[in-house]
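Friendly challenge for the regulars: who can give me the structure tokens for this chain first? No prize, just bragging rights.
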Amino acid sequence: MAAKKKPAKKAPSKSGFTYTIRRGGPIKEKDGAVIAKYLHKLIRDRGGILSPKELWEEARDPNSPVHGYIEWDVKTAAKRYQLRQCAEIIKCVQYEVKTGKIVIDVPAFVRVVNNNTLPEAKTNYGYVTTPTAATEINFEQQILNKALQDLKNFQARYDRYREVFSTLKPIFEAIAKVEKVIQQQTTKPKKSK
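First reply, four minutes later:
Bragging rights claimed.
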């Protein structure tokens, strides 16, 4: 019998909402209730809006409940930011694919995990050219799995509006069809190109 997942801690607020902490985010569950109340108070104290800069200013206080979630070592923080910038530089390059009169901009590089698909590579993860990703079965499957996960995340995010916005129904049906196609492709044995 599978173990039941423990629900995220909830933080009731004066607004009537019950706040929870998203799993996989930077906040530890044990700190969730305190941070939720803290953020709610900051937003209320600022007339209803809190910017990241304002939170950063508050977080500088060592007594702030979010202080420990910020990287205060400037060198470490700068390197992390610069690495993010480098990833953005790689991700912004694209090329045009022309099919008749239709022109589509396609990312030139995609992020993958190198499970020895390219044994000469000097890193286990990074970006490969889109044509490489399309011709290497391991990479192609990673891209399809990521695309499907993105679609499932979209569906999870907007599923609560299903009954209110009927226009979402065909989108959810299309996601189910894509999932089925990807599952069928996964079960078919393929030869590497």
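DSSP finds six helices and six strands in the chain. The chain has two domains: 10-69, 108-187. Your move, everyone else.
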